[in-house]
Amino acid sequence: MEFQAYDVALVPLIVSLVGVFRAAGLPVRWLPFTAIVLGLAAGFVYIAPEDPRQAVLFGLIMGTSAIGAYSGCKNTFRK
Description:
Elements: H1 10-23, H2 31-47, H3 52-77
Helix pairs in contact: 1-2, 1-3, 2-3
C-alpha cells in the first residue's frame, strides 16, 4: 500500500489524542512515547496492515511528526 497524502491527517489526530492523555494526567515525560505508540498503531491498523516494515516506517514518521507538532504548538502558544 502506498502512503497517501490524506493519511497525513492522522498526525493531528495523534496530537489530539496525546492532549487527551495529558489532560487525563499522564506524566509529561511519557507523552512522546505515547505519540510513537499511537503512530505505530495507526501504521499497523490503517496505513499498511499487510506490510509490517512499511507500517513501522510510516507509524514512526507519524508519531515523531506528532511529537514535533505538539511541541511546536505548545512552545508557540505558551505565555
